[in-house]
Design goal:
Strand content: 15-25%
Low-confidence stretches: 650-658
Structural class: alpha+beta
CATH topology of the largest domain: Rossmann fold
CATH class of the largest domain: Alpha Beta
Oligomer: single chain
Number of strands: 25
Mean pLDDT: 89
Number of helices: 17
CATH architecture of the largest domain: 3-Layer(aba) Sandwich
Distance between the termini: 55 Å
């Protein structure tokens, strides 16, 4: 009889099967095999919030395979992922097999390598009911919020809406940022730059030119708010005499970043590869299941000592001893809410600089570089700051120039390809008292800028800072709020829709605790404490649900119906001649008669892209692919099948068509 190992993924099963030998059979549950049914609450509130699970119809074949394999097994190991979700899957498998939690061997490993799995097999444990209860509490909590709030939103705003315990605060962040932008009033200011060179008295060769920015007048920080004031300063600077007031030289260092955790991986991939967090996690899952990286859902920057030693050995051999710091680098996790249950994300074997193909290779390479760089010497720069004194009449102005030149690349020799480049300018050799010649004055008009809209990277950072969600939930949160039409991505930035504004305004007015950032973070802390066995999950749910349930009843009676703002258009309804407006439905924006429900005319909404079709000259319109990615297609489709992923470049005037 063989030992049976049950995992949740067929890829993971295949990887384990490659090195476990003939004494083991590995089967996959294909993910969850039990869950709450979709079309009913399925929570027995009066009976300690007991969930009423059902076997998932699509998993009948997987369940059958597990049961058949279990009948022939000598010993059964549950090897689902090392997190709450994985623990819950193991618990559901035990139920399906008719086994008690303490009768099956639960094993966990954070990397799918032979040594890690063999070590896990020798250190099995029982199913951790703290982790299971934390997952159940989250599932029940989200079901209660969704099933109790959603019908209220249908009645008060629009049919088909839904609210989420973590998704709604995420939408609130985007709504509040948009309102900050709407209220923002730009203020004018001016910067004055000079081009200077060392005075050589006509000697050849001519001295090199460098730039310096005006910073002070008569010892006070200068603020120039209009063109008239800028012109007055420029007139004075034209007549001024210039000399070097001070030269400050120092060595500046830049240390490597810690290895990736889930949030930083998602943020960096958004910025560098342009992938959504959902796509990033899908590819990372494949790398993990192939045994190429450690577990990718983590908030810890901890690294196993053997991995650090392997990285240091590679750095010394590949790049040389000067790239290796005297002591190994250890990083502290910054977030106070981090569970730190796993290692940081790293390659399972540093000898593999490249692994996988296509997208997998690109993501693996980024993870490898970040990890290796984290154990390397700091980069060193020679930094020079020059203060220039401009004197005219009774006034004296101070200008500053900054030069920075790399002296030693350090970790940037590995990771520099993906890092934001430092602004490097080498200043000429100058010393205090050197006379300077003015070459050019460059006054620049500028305006203060409103807060930047969130993109995926900055939204994940904000979610993490507010304690909204956990590493495993960032990607689903961002996908869900777009799928529900509460926000839309325009030019790679999130903007709330009219529907998003209406829903958040309603929730803030009547359910401020549900969309309160501190409340959401506290609930995540409660779930962590349930996982650690410090709190009982039923009591946590009672404390939340009793006041929440009563509030739902009251609000359903007192709240007024909330209108969703429509967007006017220049078109008229062909049936009644009334103006057409843009509305938001389950599948996105559409055009509708403004006299609805008297007139029920509708048609698809097509937003013009701002350039014409390269083939037929018709307008190009903004569309969405099946995966939700924005592209540009010809208005005359299907007669004309022209399409583009990008807008025309300013240089070529043409779009890039694929």
């Amino acid at each position: 009889m063989k030992n049976l190992i049950i995992v949740e993924s067929p890829t993971k099963a295949k990887t384990l099967g490659q090195f476990l030998g003939k004494d083991y059979q590995v089967v996959s549950s294909m993910g969850h095999i039990r869950d709450l049914p979709r079309k009913s609450l399925a929570i027995d509130i009066k009976n300690n919030f007991q969930p009423e699970y059902v076997l998932l119809p699509k998993k009948k074949e997987a369940i059958r395979d597990i049961k058949e394999a279990a009948k022939k097994a000598n010993k059964i190991f549950l090897a689902t992922d090392p997190d709450r979700e994985g623990e819950a899957i193991a618990w559901h498998v035990a139920y399906v097999l008719g086994k008690k939690e303490d009768s099956l061997a639960r094993i966990v490993f954070h990397e799918i390598t032979k040594s890690a799995v063999e070590k896990a097999l020798g250190h099995s444990r029982q199913i951790d009911m703290g982790l299971v209860n934390a997952q159940q509490a989250r599932r029940v909590l989200d079901r209660l919020v969704g099933y109790k709030l959603s019908p209220l939103l249908w009645f008060k705003i629009r049919k088909g809406l839904s609210a989420g315990r973590v998704q709604s605060p995420a939408v609130r962040l985007i709504v509040e940022r948009e309102r900050e932008i709407e209220k923002f009033i730009a203020e004018e200011y001016w910067e004055i730059w000079t081009e200077l060179k060392k005075h050589l008295g006509g000697k050849l060769p001519d001295a090199p030119i460098f730039s310096a920015k005006l910073s002070k007048k008569n010892g006070e920080t200068i603020k120039i708010t209009d063109e008239k004031s800028a012109d007055e300063v420029v007139k004075e600077l034209k007549k001024a005499g210039y000399e070097v007031a001070e030269v400050i030289r120092k060595e500046a260092k830049r240390w490597p970043s810690p290895p990736f955790i889930t949030s930083t991986l998602q943020q960096q991939v958004v910025n560098r590869l342009g992938w959504t967090p959902k796509r990033t996690m899908q590819i990372a899952q494949r790398l993990y299941e192939q045994g190429l990286i450690t577990y990718h859902r983590t908030d810890s920057t901890n690294i196993a000592e053997e991995a650090i030693l392997a990285a240091r050995k590679l750095v010394g051999e590949k790049y040389g001893k000067k790239f290796l710091p005297e002591q190994a680098r250890h990083y502290k996790t910054k977030s106070k809410m981090a569970q730190e249950a796993h290692e940081a994300i790293r390659p399972t074997g540093v000898e593999k600089e490249g692994a996988g193909e296509g997208e997998e290779q690109r993501l693996y390479s980024l993870i490898w570089k970040r990890f290796i760089a984290s154990q390397m010497s700091e980069a060193v720069f020679d930094e020079t700051r020059v203060q220039v004194l401009a004197t005219t009449g009774a006034n004296h102005y101070l200008l500053e120039a900054l030069g920075r030149v790399m002296k030693f690349k350090g970790w940037m020799i590995v990771y520099d390809q993906a890092e934001k480049k430092e602004d490097e300018e080498e200043l000429p050799e100058l010393k205090k008292g050197d006379e300077l010649d003015l070459v050019k004055l460059k006054p620049e008009q500028k305006f203060t800028q409103p807060p930047t809209r969130y993109n995926e990277a900055s939204l994940i950072k904000a979610l993490e800072e507010h304690g909204i969600g956990r590493p495993s939930t960032y990607a689903p949160i961002i996908s869900t709020i777009q799928d529900r039409q509460y926000v839309e991505k325009i030019e790679k930035r999130f903007q709330p829709t009219a529907l998003g504004f209406a829903v958040i305004d309603f929730l803030v007015e009547y359910f401020s605790d549900i969309v309160n950032y501190q409340f959401t973070a506290q609930m995540e802390d409660d779930l962590d404490e349930i996982a650690e066995g410090k709190k009982e999950w039923v009591k946590v749910l009672e404390q939340f649900y009793l006041p929440f349930g009563e509030k739902v009843k009251v609000v359903s009676k007192i709240a007024e119906k909330v209108p969703v703002q429509t967007e006017a258009t220049d078109e008229n309804c062909p049936d009644c001649k009334a103006p057409l407006v843009i509305r938001i439905g389950r599948f996105g924006k559409f055009l509708s008669c403004s006299k609805f429900p008297e007139c029920k005319f509708t048609k698809p909404y097509l937003k013009e892209a701002g350039f014409d079709c390269q083939k037929c000259g018709a307008p190009m319109v903004v569309k969405k692919s099946r995966k939700g990615k924005t592209f540009y297609g010809c208005f005359r489709w299907p007669e004309c099948d022209n399409a583009s992923w990008r807008k025309p470049t300013a240089k070529s005037g043409e779009a890039s068509f694929n």
